[in-house]
Amino acid sequence: MKQPGRGFGHVIIEALRDKPRPDADGFLTAEVVSLSHSYPFRFMIPEDCTDSPCRWIYPVAFGGGLVGGDAIEATVVVGDDCAAVVTTQESTKVYHCHHCGATNQRLLYTVGDQALLCVLPDPVVCFKGANFQQTQVVEMSPNSNLVFLDWMLSGRTALSESWSFQRYLNHVEMRVLGEVVLRELTDLEDSPYKSVADGMMNFQVSGMCIVLGDRVSFLSEALLDKYSRKKDLGERSSPDVVVSVSRVSYTVQGQTICGCYLRFLGATTQKVRLYIEKCV
After folding, report:
1. How far apart are CA 95 and CA 251, in angstroms?
2. Among residues 52, 51, 83, which one has the least CA distance to residue 147?
3. Which member of 144, 203, 204, 222 lies 3.0 to 4.6 Å from 154 by CB, making a disulfide possible if both were Cys?
4. Count of CB atoms within 10 A of residue 253's CB?
5. Is 132:71 a contact under the CB 8 Å cutoff?
6. Number of neighbouring beta carbons within 10 Å of residue 56
7. How distant, in Å, are the alpha carbons of 67, 188, 260 from that of 99?
8. Following DSSP, what letter does each residue of 161-215 receive, concatenated?
9. What's the CA gap between 69 and 103, in Å, rounded?
């Protein structure tokens, strides 16, 4: 297994003002103007992977995942009028940390005016004995647009490692013009009275999705319409996936940004993937 390391990554994309070529949504063609990274982390940004102006950004951890003692810090800056997708090639695997301390990861995103950032990763998978502590911060303006997916699996269920990690600590924070508008903290750790596995019962997947901004209002309205409506008489909910959604609206310095906040639990990865594909 690879040795622990301290890795960083930094990427900035900005619009090509001299060659605007806006698409139907008005986003401008974007170019990478700054890119740096260090082992065991790097960004992959393929050229011409899509006909749209959107840039696809892939964070990659060498060695097949993160080990105890790894400390990763990555920053993504999406300039005004740009569109970007941050996604992964596979799930983020977090290995045990019996002798090396916690695995730490800090992800910082900045979204410019009239820009769109979609953070759509595969899930985090904490192996038996893992101690994963993550912070994710998004800086926006009231005219920014965001689709932010964050989810995790219980572990390697085929090896009976369901919810058998040491700790999973995940801090998500959204800021508009520097003011915190949403803060979420997930802290999963066995207590002397109840284990995480007992508390999660038969659920193997947990996650959330935040949608904010005028340009993605169609998505937030569709999610609200689908998951916040009252059930018809006799209509049954799926026992495999539990979804809740709330409308959100934040006013900062007289400017308002609206959207929705969705949470979900799932019994299997396959069932949840189907829901996510329908959502985003």
Report:
1. 41
2. 83
3. 204
4. 9
5. no
6. 16
7. 11, 20, 41
8. -TT-SSEEEEEEEEEETTEEEEEEEEEEE--SS--HHHHHTT--EEEEEEEESGG
9. 5
Partners of 58 in beta bridges: 44
Contact criterion met (CB below 8 Å) for 142 and 177: yes
The H or E element that residue 242 is part of is strand 241-252
Q: pTM (2 decimals)?
A: 0.93
What is the C-alpha R_g of the chain?
A: 19
Point out which residues pair with 83 in neighbouring strands. 116
The H or E element that residue 218 is part of is helix 217-227
Phi-psi region of 154 (alpha: psi -120 to 50; beta: other; left: phi over 0): alpha
Let me know: does 109 contact 137? Beta carbons within 8 Å.
yes
Burial environment of residue 232 by CB neighbours within 10 A (0 to 12, 13 to 18, 19 or more): exposed
The residue length of the chain stands at 280
In whole angstroms, give the CA distance from residue 79 to residue 152: 29
Mean per-residue pLDDT over the chain, rounded = 91
Torsions phi, psi for 146 (to 5 deg): -145, 135
Side chain identity at 259, as an amino acid letter? Answer: G
Give the list of residues 6+ apart from residue 46 with CB closer than 8 angstroms, or none: 56, 58
pLDDT in tens, 173-212: 999 999 999 999 999 999 999 999 999 999 999 999 999 9
User: Partners of 174 in the beta sheet?
Assistant: 138, 182
User: Which residues lie below 8 Å from residue 177, measured CB to CB, with a gap of 6+?
Assistant: 141, 142, 252, 253, 255
Cis peptide before 239 (omega within 30 of 0): no
Taking the C-alpha atoms of residue 174 and residue 137, their distance in angstroms, rounded to an integer, is 6
Query: Tens digit of pLDDT for each residue in 131-156?
Result: 999 999 999 999 999 999 999 999 99
